[in-house]
Amino acid sequence: MKWLSYRHQGQLDYGILTTENKIISAKTIFSNPPATLLDFIKEKPAIPELKGISGEIALSDVEIQIPFMPPNNIIAIGKNYYNHVLEMGSKEDVPEHILVFTKSANSLLPHNGKIELHQNLTAQLDYEGELAVIIGEEVRDISEKEALSAVFGFTILNDVTARDLQKKHKQFFLGKSLDASCPIGPYVLENDASKEVIFHIETKVNGEVRQSDSTDKFIFNLARIISDLSKGHTLFPGDIIATGTPSGVGKGMTPPTFLQDGDTVEITIDKIGTLTNQVRKS
Fold first, then answer.
1. Which InterPro entries does the protein's record reference (predicted)?
2. Can you tell me the distance from the alpha carbon of 172 to that of 163, in angstroms, rounded to the nearest whole number?
3. Any idea where the domains of the chain sit in the sequence?
4. What sign results for the dihedral spanned by CA atoms 45, 49, 54, 59?
5. Are the C-beta atoms of residues 267 and 159 closer than 8 Å to each other?
6. pLDDT tens digits along 166-198
7. Whole-model pTM above 0.85?
8. Chain centre to alpha carbon of residue 155
9. How far, in Å, are 14, 239, 255 from residue 132 at the CA level?
């Protein structure tokens, strides 16, 4: 089941995307719906039978929004694909433990939103296509065996990074938290599996495939990531975890090739959809 948040006829709402690219509004599904998708994740009301429900909205008639504003900064995992580690350094840089940083939630941007080039701050804006995990339960010290039970769903995230700012400040936060620099969405695929699902990720820039890999190449799998993050640290419903990017980023190209005004970035993850954004001067 896929969820999305959207604006329709001037009103914000959320609902379920059908296989016919129609939307069933939460107001149609529930007699007293949770106010937002985040509230739905927290409250977990039972979903009634959807067969025969009328009043569907065409996807083409809405403006897709970010799924929700998370309760905390986005938690992100670095260096989680071996080939990406190599393109950014060497095999000596392969981590023994998860590498964790955060991104400001202020950076979030919806599908079809404009990525700000921030040309007065950076000359090295780069893309990173990633699978993002959305936590559905309040958990702490959860085991790897139980970790996937805490996942509400999955979405797509573009961990846009100002490489020069990242190098200048010798940490990740500022270079990865510029306004309008973290596209997310367009849909949230609800988790209905007890075992880890394998996703294929493909990133295109102006139609050219730059990244193509699958999450079975993770150095640290989802269960390990969630379990490690929860050790002595509570994860809350709506927390977003970006799980790392495959090789093929602009900085890893010869010569390095960074985003420019007018570029279009498309990130496709099978089973979820395609997240599309254009780059525009600030």
1. Fumarylacetoacetase-like_C, Fumarylacetoacetase_C_sf
2. 9
3. 2-64, 74-280
4. positive
5. no
6. 999 888 899 999 999 999 999 999 998 778 999
7. yes
8. 5
9. 19, 10, 29
